[in-house]
Design brief:
By secondary structure, the protein is an alpha/beta fold. The chain contains 15 helices and ten strands. It starts with 7 loop residues before the first helix and ends with a helix.
């Protein structure tokens, strides 16, 4: 235990002596069961080999202005070690933590861009995690994070739920991922409120086309429950504690895939589909009621995706869901989904040309009947995986 308070001089000496090292905590895809990445966490080893907890010096580093030097150190170290990690799994994305203060000016952003360019790494392999407090730094932080995002660098909002960010605020920022704070994950069984916060956070991220990570998973039941809720990535001590580089590489070599479970994302797909159908019918009725072609311009913001490969269900089907293409339950979904979108396009065209109410009703009924087929197929697929998961846990 640290008996003397840490000073600015101590931090500066640790940076000079390279006393800070990186530990990697694995992240697991809850959909495929594979390792999909890790979070690079800073660890400070004193002269006796003992670790000094971040709580003992991060606040001082923030106040003294040393925090950006620490962040630069972490990024430099990560870039040095990244080839050793990617050698064993080219698909991994490694994240590191940055402070909101790192984006108060362009210094750190320029540093990161130069570092990536010099080493010619794919930008999508290094992810920046920032906490909700960055939202208080509004314009400058948003400007610099947007620049990184437009380059292809993934940006994650860490500790989501501890601040005041909502759907509207979140949509203004270039986040590709949100990470649910471990306080909610650890308390998932303590109160219905915690559960609802997690479920609504997952749904909100999904609606904004963001990935969602749950940190602080400390038991198997929590992992399975989050899978069912539609969480995409898990992190926590039940999966693995943070590991030194050599141990993390060994972990990758010996990793045994966890049971995959798309139950949650299939459930999300059902909600997405029902929302698509409702939005389509609402748009069609508005256009038909306006009695003018120009009416379509007023609902462009709410007009559903007409391309079956680009709607939320289509992106799942031709994206992550494609890994389950060997299942007949999955294969049977493609054709009716194509037909549904064709019916939607024809319905919209009929409304634009001011068809009769009788024809409008007939076409809406046809769309609804095809929608029932889609829901039935999705529920069949969901039930298949529910039983597969039940069978696997029963055997254990």
């Amino acid at each position: 235990m640290q008996t003397q308070p840490i000073t600015v001089e101590d931090i500066e000496k640790a940076l000079k002596d390279e006393a800070f090292v990186l530990y990697y905590q694995p992240k697991i895809s809850m959909i495929t069961g594979d390792v999909c990445g890790a979070e690079a966490l800073i660890r400070w080893q004193d002269d006796n080999g003992k670790f000094i907890p971040p709580d003992a010096y991060i606040e001082l580093a923030e106040e003294s202005g040393l925090i950006t030097r620490i962040t630069k150190y972490v990024l430099s170290r990560l870039i040095q070690e990244l080839p050793l990690v990617l050698k064993y799994n080219r698909d991994l994305v490694i994240s590191f933590n940055a402070s909101g203060k790192d984006f108060h000016d362009e210094d750190f952003t320029r540093f990161m861009i130069r570092a990536i360019d010099q080493h010619q790494y794919p930008v999508e392999k290094i992810e920046v995690e920032v906490t909700e407090t960055v939202l208080m730094d509004e314009e400058l932080a948003k400007l610099h994070l947007t620049e990184l995002s437009e380059m292809g660098v993934p940006i994650t909002m860490d500790d989501f739920g501890t601040g005041h960010s909502g759907l509207v605020e979140l949509s203004k920022w270039p986040f590709s991922t949100v990470k649910i704070d471990k306080a909610f994950v650890n308390g998932i069984y303590d109160s219905r409120k915690n559960t609802e916060i997690i479920q609504s956070s997952i749904r909100m991220a999904h609606q904004l086309n963001m990935d969602i990570v749950a940190e602080g998973i400390e038991d198997k039941d929590t992992f399975i429950l989050l899978q069912k809720y539609g969480c995409k990535v898990g992190q926590g001590y039940w999966i693995s504690k943070p590991l030194a580089l050599e141990d993390f590489i060994q972990y990758l070599k010996q990793y045994r895939i966890m049971p995959p479970s798309p139950i949650g994302v299939i459930y999300m797909a059902q909600l997405d589909h029902m929302q698509w159908k409702k939005t389509m019918i609402d748009a069609v009725l508005y256009v038909h009621r306006s009695h003018q072609v120009d009416g379509i311009k007023k609902v462009q913001g709410g007009l559903p995706e007409l391309d079956h490969t680009c709607c939320k269900l289509g992106r799942w089907y031709y994206g992550v869901g494609d890994s389950f293409g060997h299942l007949k339950e999955y294969q049977h979904l493609e054709q009716p989904h194509k037909e549904l979108h064709q019916l939607g396009r024809e319905l919209l065209d009929a409304a634009i040309t001011n068809c009769s109410l009788s024809e409008l009703k007939q076409r809406i009924n046809a769309l609804s009947k095809k929608s029932v087929v889609i829901i039935d197929l999705l529920q069949t697929l969901e039930n298949f995986w529910v039983l597969e998961q039940h069978k696997a846990t029963s055997i254990e």
